[in-house]
From TrEMBL:
BP GO terms, sorted: fatty acid elongation
Pfam (any one): adh_short_C2
Gene3D superfamilies: NAD(P)-binding Rossmann-like Domain
InterPro entries cross-referenced by the UniProt entry: KR_dom, NAD(P)-bd_dom_sf, Sc_DH/Rdtase_CS, SDR_fam
GO molecular function, one term: oxidoreductase activity, acting on the CH-OH group of donors, NAD or NADP as acceptor
Record-annotated Ketoreductase domain positions: 7-190
Origin: domain of life: Bacteria
PANTHER family per UniProt: 3-OXOACYL-[ACYL-CARRIER-PROTEIN] REDUCTASE, CHLOROPLASTIC, SHORT-CHAIN DEHYDROGENASES/REDUCTASES FAMILY MEMBER
Keywords: Oxidoreductase
Protein name in the entry: 3-oxoacyl-[acyl-carrier protein] reductase
Family membership: Belongs to the short-chain dehydrogenases/reductases (SDR) family.
Length: 246
């Protein structure tokens, strides 16, 4: 029996990267998953990679659009009969110094990360409270803890996700719904590996474990928070950082 045997999970931004790794881990632990992503073709490809219609389905979703989020969550109940786990992972970056950042760049990042997580949390919670059970996992970032140069938009959004998660956890605890967050640090991905070598080395120098994290390592923590292994945890923030900025 897998840790999520019989569970149905919705994961946003899951066509690639951390989101796909979470979906992959969940399926390996017995869950059926709904892949939500702005890129419909990539989401469909991801669902096939995960095993096809028996275990995964794909829905195009703009997390800033409430109707899209409703459609995404409806797919879980219509295709698989339930909604047990919600992972709010979708995100973008629009990095720039505060002096050069445009208002549009600020708004885009706040909308996708913070409003998107709010949409996913509140909509999933409304469904889960009817069954008196459910787990919501929100993906924040180390940038929301310490702030990063060039990321006033991203750091603000990721810090906001922590506050949102804690407030939602207090609201939903007596309904049997748990809400927790993860703050990844430097995780190896196509995006991070594309950064200039000097930037990579500077970040690496801050990590006591002397290596970047892997997407699978974030996925294992998401599995912990989604499963009954964390049954007495809500409102918590788990750092997956290799000890960076303790």
């Amino acid at each position: 029996m897998g840790l999520l045997e019989g569970n149905v999970a919705v994961i946003t931004g899951a066509a690639q990267g951390i989101g796909f790794a979470i979906a992959e881990r969940f399926v390996a632990e017995g869950a059926r998953v709904v892949i939500g992503d702005l890129d419909a073709d990539a989401a469909a490809t991801a669902a096939v990679k995960l095993g096809g219609a028996d275990v995964a389905t794909a829905v195009r979703c703009d997390v800033t659009d409430t109707a899209d989020v409703d459609t995404l969550l409806a797919a879980a109940t219509e295709e698989f009969g339930a909604l047990d786990v919600m992972v709010n992972n979708a995100g973008i970056t629009r990095d720039a110094t505060m002096r050069t950042m445009t208002e549009e760049q600020f708004d885009q990042v706040i909308d996708v990360h913070l409003k998107g997580t709010w949409n996913g949390t509140r909509k999933a919670a409304a469904i889960m409270r009817e069954r008196k059970r459910g787990a919501i996992v929100n993906i924040s970032s180390l940038s929301g803890k310490v702030g990063m140069v060039g990321q006033t938009n991203y750091s603000a959004a990721k810090a906001g996700i922590v506050g949102l998660s804690k407030a939602a956890a207090k609201e939903m605890a007596h309904h049997g719904v748990r809400v927790n967050a993860i703050q990844p640090g430097l995780i190896r991905s196509a995006m991070t590996e594309a950064m200039p070598e000097h930037a990579w080395e500077q970040k690496m120098s801050e990590i006591p474990m002397c290596r970047p994290g892997e997407v699978a390592e974030v996925a294992k923590v998401a599995l912990f928070l989604a499963s009954d292994l964390s049954s007495y945890m809500t409102g918590t923030v788990l750092e997956v950082t290799g000890g960076r900025f303790m």
